[in-house]
Amino acid sequence: MIKEELKLKEALIIEGGNKLKGVLEVSGAKNAALPNMAATLLTDEEVVIDNIPDLLDIETMKNLLNTIGVQINHIKDKAYSFKLNEVKSLKAPYELVSKMRASILVLGPMLAKFGYAEVSLPGGCSIGTRPVDLHLKALEKMGAEITIEHGYIKASAPKGLKGAHIFFDKITVTGTENIMMAATLAEGKTIIENAALEPEVVDLAVMLRKMGANIKGEGTHRIEIEGVKSLKGTYHRVIPDRIEAGTFAVLSALTGGNIVIKNYPSHYLEYVNEVLENIGIHIVKISESEVVVKRDDILKPVNIETREYPLFPTDLQAQFMTLLCFANGVSEITENI
Protein backbone atom coordinates (compact mmCIF):
# COMPACT_ATOMS: atom_id res chain seq x y z
CA MET A 1 0.00 0.00 0.00
CA ILE A 2 2.76 2.45 0.96
CA LYS A 3 4.73 1.56 -2.15
CA GLU A 4 1.64 2.15 -4.31
CA GLU A 5 1.06 5.58 -2.76
CA LEU A 6 4.73 6.59 -3.23
CA LYS A 7 5.37 5.12 -6.67
CA LEU A 8 5.13 8.55 -8.34
CA LYS A 9 7.34 10.26 -5.74
CA GLU A 10 10.98 10.08 -4.68
CA ALA A 11 11.09 8.18 -1.42
CA LEU A 12 13.17 6.01 0.87
CA ILE A 13 11.33 2.91 2.10
CA ILE A 14 13.01 1.41 5.16
CA GLU A 15 12.29 -2.06 6.54
CA GLY A 16 13.51 -1.85 10.13
CA GLY A 17 14.20 -4.24 12.95
CA ASN A 18 17.45 -5.79 11.74
CA LYS A 19 20.93 -5.63 13.23
CA LEU A 20 23.38 -4.31 10.67
CA LYS A 21 26.70 -5.96 9.96
CA GLY A 22 29.45 -5.65 7.40
CA VAL A 23 31.90 -2.96 6.31
CA LEU A 24 31.26 0.73 5.67
CA GLU A 25 33.93 2.92 4.13
CA VAL A 26 33.90 6.63 4.96
CA SER A 27 33.83 8.78 1.81
CA GLY A 28 35.95 11.80 1.08
CA ALA A 29 34.74 14.96 2.81
CA LYS A 30 32.42 17.00 0.60
CA ASN A 31 33.31 20.16 2.52
CA ALA A 32 36.98 19.57 1.75
CA ALA A 33 36.50 18.49 -1.87
CA LEU A 34 34.52 21.62 -2.82
CA PRO A 35 37.21 24.20 -1.90
CA ASN A 36 39.90 21.86 -3.27
CA MET A 37 38.08 21.84 -6.59
CA ALA A 38 37.66 25.62 -6.55
CA ALA A 39 41.42 25.99 -5.96
CA THR A 40 42.14 24.39 -9.35
CA LEU A 41 41.21 27.79 -10.85
CA LEU A 42 44.44 29.19 -9.42
CA THR A 43 46.76 27.36 -11.84
CA ASP A 44 47.05 26.67 -15.56
CA GLU A 45 48.54 23.24 -14.83
CA GLU A 46 46.70 19.97 -14.28
CA VAL A 47 45.53 19.14 -10.75
CA VAL A 48 44.44 15.62 -9.83
CA ILE A 49 42.12 15.27 -6.86
CA ASP A 50 41.39 11.81 -5.48
CA ASN A 51 38.73 10.50 -3.08
CA ILE A 52 36.04 12.91 -4.34
CA PRO A 53 32.60 11.77 -3.13
CA ASP A 54 29.77 11.14 -5.57
CA LEU A 55 27.28 13.81 -4.48
CA LEU A 56 24.98 16.36 -6.11
CA ASP A 57 26.97 19.33 -4.74
CA ILE A 58 30.12 17.89 -6.33
CA GLU A 59 28.34 17.68 -9.69
CA THR A 60 27.21 21.29 -9.29
CA MET A 61 30.80 22.41 -8.64
CA LYS A 62 32.01 20.43 -11.67
CA ASN A 63 29.40 22.16 -13.84
CA LEU A 64 30.37 25.56 -12.43
CA LEU A 65 34.09 25.01 -13.06
CA ASN A 66 33.33 23.74 -16.56
CA THR A 67 31.30 26.89 -17.25
CA ILE A 68 34.36 28.97 -16.32
CA GLY A 69 36.66 26.90 -18.53
CA VAL A 70 38.08 24.05 -16.47
CA GLN A 71 38.32 20.74 -18.33
CA ILE A 72 37.46 17.86 -15.98
CA ASN A 73 38.27 14.22 -16.73
CA HIS A 74 37.41 11.13 -14.71
CA ILE A 75 40.64 9.15 -14.25
CA LYS A 76 39.51 6.18 -12.15
CA ASP A 77 37.31 5.39 -9.17
CA LYS A 78 37.02 8.69 -7.26
CA ALA A 79 39.93 10.52 -8.94
CA TYR A 80 39.46 13.42 -11.38
CA SER A 81 41.82 15.73 -13.25
CA PHE A 82 41.17 19.47 -13.51
CA LYS A 83 42.87 21.75 -16.03
CA LEU A 84 42.07 25.36 -16.86
CA ASN A 85 42.49 25.31 -20.64
CA GLU A 86 40.61 28.35 -21.89
CA VAL A 87 38.59 30.89 -19.93
CA LYS A 88 35.04 30.75 -21.27
CA SER A 89 33.27 32.90 -18.68
CA LEU A 90 34.06 34.83 -15.51
CA LYS A 91 30.48 34.57 -14.34
CA ALA A 92 29.04 32.07 -11.85
CA PRO A 93 25.36 32.08 -12.86
CA TYR A 94 22.37 31.99 -10.53
CA GLU A 95 21.14 28.68 -12.01
CA LEU A 96 24.20 26.94 -10.54
CA VAL A 97 24.92 29.07 -7.46
CA SER A 98 21.31 28.74 -6.28
CA LYS A 99 21.79 24.96 -6.06
CA MET A 100 24.78 25.20 -3.71
CA ARG A 101 25.84 28.00 -1.37
CA ALA A 102 29.47 26.79 -1.48
CA SER A 103 29.61 28.14 -5.06
CA ILE A 104 30.84 31.38 -3.46
CA LEU A 105 34.20 29.59 -3.13
CA VAL A 106 35.05 30.42 -6.77
CA LEU A 107 34.99 34.17 -6.01
CA GLY A 108 38.42 34.40 -4.35
CA PRO A 109 40.29 32.22 -6.89
CA MET A 110 38.70 33.94 -9.91
CA LEU A 111 39.47 37.41 -8.59
CA ALA A 112 43.07 36.47 -7.73
CA LYS A 113 43.75 34.70 -11.03
CA PHE A 114 41.83 36.83 -13.55
CA GLY A 115 41.28 40.15 -11.76
CA TYR A 116 37.51 39.93 -12.24
CA ALA A 117 34.58 37.80 -11.13
CA GLU A 118 30.81 37.85 -11.20
CA VAL A 119 29.14 35.50 -8.74
CA SER A 120 25.43 35.31 -8.04
CA LEU A 121 24.33 35.78 -4.47
CA PRO A 122 23.12 32.38 -3.21
CA GLY A 123 19.68 33.85 -2.50
CA GLY A 124 19.57 36.11 -5.54
CA CYS A 125 18.82 39.76 -4.87
CA SER A 126 18.29 39.74 -1.10
CA ILE A 127 18.14 42.68 1.30
CA GLY A 128 19.89 42.83 4.65
CA THR A 129 22.99 41.25 6.12
CA ARG A 130 24.30 38.41 3.98
CA PRO A 131 26.58 35.59 5.16
CA VAL A 132 28.95 36.47 2.28
CA ASP A 133 29.51 40.00 3.60
CA LEU A 134 32.51 38.73 5.59
CA HIS A 135 34.07 37.50 2.33
CA LEU A 136 33.37 40.77 0.53
CA LYS A 137 34.74 43.04 3.26
CA ALA A 138 37.95 41.00 3.40
CA LEU A 139 38.41 41.12 -0.40
CA GLU A 140 37.79 44.89 -0.37
CA LYS A 141 40.54 45.22 2.24
CA MET A 142 42.80 43.39 -0.23
CA GLY A 143 42.07 46.03 -2.86
CA ALA A 144 39.07 44.62 -4.69
CA GLU A 145 36.34 46.91 -5.97
CA ILE A 146 32.99 45.26 -5.30
CA THR A 147 29.44 46.19 -6.26
CA ILE A 148 26.21 44.22 -6.06
CA GLU A 149 23.92 44.58 -9.06
CA HIS A 150 20.77 42.63 -9.88
CA GLY A 151 21.63 39.88 -7.40
CA TYR A 152 25.24 39.47 -8.59
CA ILE A 153 28.52 40.23 -6.82
CA LYS A 154 30.74 42.05 -9.33
CA ALA A 155 34.34 42.15 -8.13
CA SER A 156 37.37 43.56 -9.90
CA ALA A 157 41.04 43.99 -9.09
CA PRO A 158 42.66 45.19 -12.33
CA LYS A 159 46.01 45.78 -10.62
CA GLY A 160 45.82 42.54 -8.64
CA LEU A 161 45.05 41.87 -5.00
CA LYS A 162 47.30 43.14 -2.22
CA GLY A 163 48.15 41.41 1.04
CA ALA A 164 46.18 42.69 4.03
CA HIS A 165 45.52 42.06 7.71
CA ILE A 166 42.06 40.46 7.87
CA PHE A 167 40.11 40.00 11.09
CA PHE A 168 36.86 38.06 10.82
CA ASP A 169 34.24 39.34 13.28
CA LYS A 170 32.73 35.87 13.22
CA ILE A 171 34.41 32.56 12.47
CA THR A 172 33.61 31.56 8.89
CA VAL A 173 34.84 28.39 7.22
CA THR A 174 34.13 29.34 3.61
CA GLY A 175 35.30 32.90 4.32
CA THR A 176 38.63 31.60 5.63
CA GLU A 177 38.96 29.33 2.58
CA ASN A 178 38.03 32.03 0.07
CA ILE A 179 40.50 34.57 1.44
CA MET A 180 43.23 31.96 1.83
CA MET A 181 42.89 31.04 -1.86
CA ALA A 182 42.78 34.67 -2.97
CA ALA A 183 45.85 35.50 -0.87
CA THR A 184 48.03 32.84 -2.51
CA LEU A 185 48.38 35.03 -5.64
CA ALA A 186 48.12 38.43 -3.91
CA GLU A 187 51.11 40.74 -3.68
CA GLY A 188 52.67 40.64 -0.21
CA LYS A 189 51.57 39.03 3.03
CA THR A 190 48.01 38.36 4.14
CA ILE A 191 47.20 37.56 7.76
CA ILE A 192 43.82 36.05 8.62
CA GLU A 193 42.84 36.46 12.28
CA ASN A 194 39.99 34.52 13.91
CA ALA A 195 40.37 31.96 11.12
CA ALA A 196 38.32 28.75 11.15
CA LEU A 197 40.07 25.68 12.61
CA GLU A 198 38.16 23.00 10.68
CA PRO A 199 40.07 20.03 9.20
CA GLU A 200 38.68 21.00 5.79
CA VAL A 201 40.49 24.37 6.03
CA VAL A 202 43.70 22.53 6.95
CA ASP A 203 43.23 20.15 4.01
CA LEU A 204 42.88 23.08 1.62
CA ALA A 205 46.08 24.64 2.99
CA VAL A 206 47.91 21.34 2.50
CA MET A 207 46.80 21.15 -1.13
CA LEU A 208 47.67 24.81 -1.82
CA ARG A 209 51.12 24.28 -0.34
CA LYS A 210 51.63 21.32 -2.72
CA MET A 211 50.75 23.76 -5.52
CA GLY A 212 53.50 26.12 -4.38
CA ALA A 213 51.63 28.44 -2.01
CA ASN A 214 53.42 29.90 1.01
CA ILE A 215 51.01 29.24 3.90
CA LYS A 216 51.54 28.67 7.60
CA GLY A 217 49.33 28.56 10.68
CA GLU A 218 46.44 26.48 9.32
CA GLY A 219 44.62 24.75 12.17
CA THR A 220 45.07 27.86 14.37
CA HIS A 221 43.13 31.10 14.54
CA ARG A 222 45.95 32.97 12.74
CA ILE A 223 46.91 32.00 9.20
CA GLU A 224 49.68 33.76 7.27
CA ILE A 225 49.97 33.63 3.48
CA GLU A 226 52.82 35.15 1.49
CA GLY A 227 51.67 35.65 -2.08
CA VAL A 228 53.52 34.03 -5.00
CA LYS A 229 53.53 34.78 -8.74
CA SER A 230 51.95 31.50 -9.83
CA LEU A 231 50.89 28.07 -8.66
CA LYS A 232 51.55 24.66 -10.20
CA GLY A 233 49.68 21.41 -10.65
CA THR A 234 49.66 18.64 -8.05
CA TYR A 235 48.04 15.42 -6.83
CA HIS A 236 45.91 15.56 -3.69
CA ARG A 237 43.72 13.08 -1.82
CA VAL A 238 40.67 14.47 0.00
CA ILE A 239 40.44 13.75 3.75
CA PRO A 240 37.68 11.44 5.10
CA ASP A 241 34.30 12.96 5.92
CA ARG A 242 34.08 13.33 9.71
CA ILE A 243 30.30 13.92 9.59
CA GLU A 244 29.67 10.75 7.60
CA ALA A 245 31.97 8.85 9.97
CA GLY A 246 30.07 10.11 13.02
CA THR A 247 26.79 9.19 11.33
CA PHE A 248 28.02 5.63 10.70
CA ALA A 249 29.05 5.34 14.38
CA VAL A 250 25.57 6.39 15.52
CA LEU A 251 23.97 4.00 13.00
CA SER A 252 25.99 1.08 14.29
CA ALA A 253 25.17 1.91 17.92
CA LEU A 254 21.45 2.32 17.24
CA THR A 255 21.05 -1.06 15.54
CA GLY A 256 23.32 -2.92 17.97
CA GLY A 257 25.02 -4.37 14.94
CA ASN A 258 28.60 -5.26 14.11
CA ILE A 259 29.86 -2.76 11.55
CA VAL A 260 33.49 -2.20 10.65
CA ILE A 261 34.01 1.45 9.70
CA LYS A 262 36.97 2.00 7.37
CA ASN A 263 38.82 5.33 7.09
CA TYR A 264 37.38 6.51 10.40
CA PRO A 265 39.12 9.85 11.16
CA SER A 266 39.47 9.53 14.94
CA HIS A 267 41.78 12.56 15.16
CA TYR A 268 39.01 14.79 13.73
CA LEU A 269 36.36 13.33 16.04
CA GLU A 270 38.01 13.43 19.46
CA TYR A 271 35.24 15.52 21.03
CA VAL A 272 32.46 13.52 19.35
CA ASN A 273 34.08 10.26 20.48
CA GLU A 274 34.14 11.62 24.04
CA VAL A 275 30.41 12.43 23.86
CA LEU A 276 29.72 8.92 22.54
CA GLU A 277 31.76 7.46 25.41
CA ASN A 278 29.68 9.45 27.92
CA ILE A 279 26.51 8.02 26.37
CA GLY A 280 27.86 4.47 26.63
CA ILE A 281 29.11 3.94 23.09
CA HIS A 282 32.72 2.94 22.53
CA ILE A 283 34.80 3.43 19.38
CA VAL A 284 37.28 0.56 19.31
CA LYS A 285 40.25 0.71 16.94
CA ILE A 286 41.02 -2.59 15.20
CA SER A 287 43.66 -1.13 12.85
CA GLU A 288 45.21 2.24 12.02
CA SER A 289 42.13 3.41 10.10
CA GLU A 290 39.39 0.91 11.04
CA VAL A 291 37.07 0.88 14.05
CA VAL A 292 34.11 -1.08 15.37
CA VAL A 293 31.40 0.35 17.62
CA LYS A 294 30.48 -1.28 20.94
CA ARG A 295 27.62 -0.13 23.17
CA ASP A 296 26.46 -0.60 26.72
CA ASP A 297 23.06 -2.20 27.31
CA ILE A 298 21.77 1.01 28.91
CA LEU A 299 22.58 4.32 27.21
CA LYS A 300 23.04 7.40 29.41
CA PRO A 301 21.61 10.89 28.75
CA VAL A 302 23.93 13.81 28.00
CA ASN A 303 23.68 17.53 27.32
CA ILE A 304 25.18 18.71 24.01
CA GLU A 305 25.89 22.19 22.66
CA THR A 306 26.88 22.67 19.02
CA ARG A 307 30.02 24.78 18.58
CA GLU A 308 32.73 25.44 16.00
CA TYR A 309 35.42 22.80 15.54
CA PRO A 310 36.99 21.15 17.52
CA LEU A 311 33.78 20.97 19.59
CA PHE A 312 30.46 19.37 18.65
CA PRO A 313 29.48 19.89 14.97
CA THR A 314 25.99 21.13 14.12
CA ASP A 315 25.80 18.61 11.24
CA LEU A 316 25.71 15.71 13.74
CA GLN A 317 22.95 17.22 15.86
CA ALA A 318 20.05 15.38 14.19
CA GLN A 319 21.78 12.00 14.38
CA PHE A 320 22.52 12.39 18.08
CA MET A 321 18.96 13.58 18.73
CA THR A 322 17.72 10.26 17.35
CA LEU A 323 20.32 8.33 19.35
CA LEU A 324 19.43 10.07 22.62
CA CYS A 325 15.78 9.06 22.23
CA PHE A 326 17.00 5.63 23.39
CA ALA A 327 18.94 6.93 26.40
CA ASN A 328 17.68 6.25 29.93
CA GLY A 329 16.83 9.81 30.97
CA VAL A 330 16.46 13.36 29.69
CA SER A 331 19.05 14.83 27.33
CA GLU A 332 19.29 18.40 26.10
CA ILE A 333 20.75 19.64 22.78
CA THR A 334 21.43 23.37 22.28
CA GLU A 335 22.04 24.73 18.78
CA ASN A 336 24.51 27.63 18.73
CA ILE A 337 25.66 27.75 15.11
UniProtKB/TrEMBL annotation:
GO terms for biological process: cell division; cell wall organization; peptidoglycan biosynthetic process; regulation of cell shape; UDP-N-acetylgalactosamine biosynthetic process. CDD domains: UdpNAET. It catalyses: phosphoenolpyruvate + UDP-N-acetyl-alpha-D-glucosamine = UDP-N-acetyl-3-O-(1-carboxyvinyl)-alpha-D-glucosamine + phosphate. InterPro entries: Enolpyruvate_Tfrase_dom, Enolpyruvate_Tfrase_sf, MurA_subfamily, RNA3'P_cycl/enolpyr_Trfase_a/b, UDP_GlcNAc_COvinyl_MurA. Keywords: Cell cycle, Cell division, Cell shape, Cell wall biogenesis/degradation, Cytoplasm, Peptidoglycan synthesis, Transferase. This is UDP-N-acetylglucosamine 1-carboxyvinyltransferase. Its EC number is 2.5.1.7. Residues 15-337 form the Enolpyruvate transferase domain. One of its GO terms (molecular function) is UDP-N-acetylglucosamine 1-carboxyvinyltransferase activity. Pathway: Cell wall biogenesis; peptidoglycan biosynthesis. It is found in: Cytoplasm.
